[in-house]
Amino acid sequence: MYEMTRTERIKAALEFKPVDKVPVSVWMHYSGADQDPLTLAKAQVHIAEKYEHDFIKLMPFGLYGVQDWGTRIRITASRGEPPEVIEHAVHTAKDWAKLEVLPGMYGAYGNQVLLAQYVSRMTKGQIPFVQTIFSPLTTARKMAGDRILIDMNENPQLLKQALQVITDTTINFVKENINAGVSGFFFATQCCNDTYMSEEAYREFGIAFDSQVIEAYKDSTYFNIGHLHGENGMFSLFDELENNALNWHDRWCSPSMEEARKITGKCLVGGIRECACCDSSKSAVLPSPLEEGNEEEIYLHVKELIDSAGKKGVILSPGCCASQFVGERQLNALKTAVERLGGCS
Q1: pLDDT tens track for 317-334
Q2: FRET partner for 159 with CA separation of 20 to 30 A, picked from 47, 132, 286, 304?
Q3: CB hemisphere CA count around 283 (13 angstroms)
Q4: Torsion of CA 105, 130, 120, 334, to 10 degrees
Q5: Which of helix, strand or coil describes residue 27?
Q6: CA atoms of 263 and 285, how far apart (whole Å)
Q7: Distance (Å, rounded) from C-alpha 82 to C-alpha 76?
Q8: Residue among 181, 247, 239, 248 at smallest CA distance from 214
Q9: Burial of 126 (0-12, 13-18, 19+ CB in 10 A)
């Protein structure tokens, strides 16, 4: 088979068509660089080019969506020390009513649009890239902590009013990123799991707003990944949303890649254990090949994915962010493993 471009490879995977090799990408936070969009853009493009990644998942710091509404954040700009919340913006139910819709090019949101613009200029259409966005309920949780669970019961209308403000702001941000040239979006939720809330609650306070955000981009971008974060995710419920690829912690959370094939017809993004974790019996700790694997171990890890999910309709990646200290040796070994395994006709 002829050598595909990165874009051709990604589009083929999304459409379950033959690929010359399984597309691959690895992402991690850049806490030493993510407060400056140009510096972050250069770092991400450098990694993608050096290790021949097939797409870039833009990595704005995880709290960018709440800073402009008054959440106080501690930022060290040191590698391995991501920003953290010092004080939530929402302390009482009445605080939800104070939120106002923000323009997509405002403040911390605007900096992430600049990130997309810089990456677009640097890659010149040669490397697909997706912007990271969060479900409105996840943003509300980052803004208020677990009091969202209280307000779901005691102040549902105030919370829904705030979620609509967050949704409208996120849509404004989405539109600016589309104008910047993104290939799609990485839509992440940290609330769609049955440990945290019921399916009924997520339908009412999650899906109702998630679907509005996704509607704003699904027909304008071709590469849209839904990310289900954490254990006990409501996979089938999340699958109802109109993203065309799914990413979750498949190496240590249910469903496995093989099980997911029976649930969804979407492209599966994952297969790499991004961090050390316990096995399903909680009796043994499984290491992350990205942290300490050698070339043969990484090859076997990737082969295990291919054996369970096949080479069509799959993109090799971590189930979430890899460590900021992932080694050059491991990234080179991952590149070699993909080349050794080849493609499919």
Answers
A1: 999 999 888 889 999 999
A2: 132
A3: 1
A4: 140
A5: coil
A6: 28
A7: 7
A8: 239
A9: exposed
Q: Is 212 exposed, middle or buried (0-12, 13-18, 19+ CB in 10 A)?
A: middle
Q: Report the C-alpha gap between 39 and 54 in whole angstroms.
A: 21
Tokens standing for residue 275: 């961090």
User: How many residues would you count in the chain?
Assistant: 345
Please give the helix or strand (H or E) that residue 225 lies within, else none. strand 225-228
CB 316 within 8 A of CB 268: no
pTM of the prediction?
0.96
Q: Which residue has the tokens 């070699």?
A: 336
Statement: 6-273+310-323 belongs to CATH 3.30.565.10: no
Reported as a single tens digit per residue, the pLDDT across 16-40 is 999 999 999 999 999 989 999 999 9
- CA dist 174 and 216 (Å) reads 7
Q: How far is CA 341 from CA 19, 55, 310, 344, in A?
A: 11, 19, 11, 10
Helix (H, G, I), strand (E, B) or coil at 306: helix
The three-state secondary structure class of 154 is helix
Give the residue carrying structure tokens 């099980």: 259
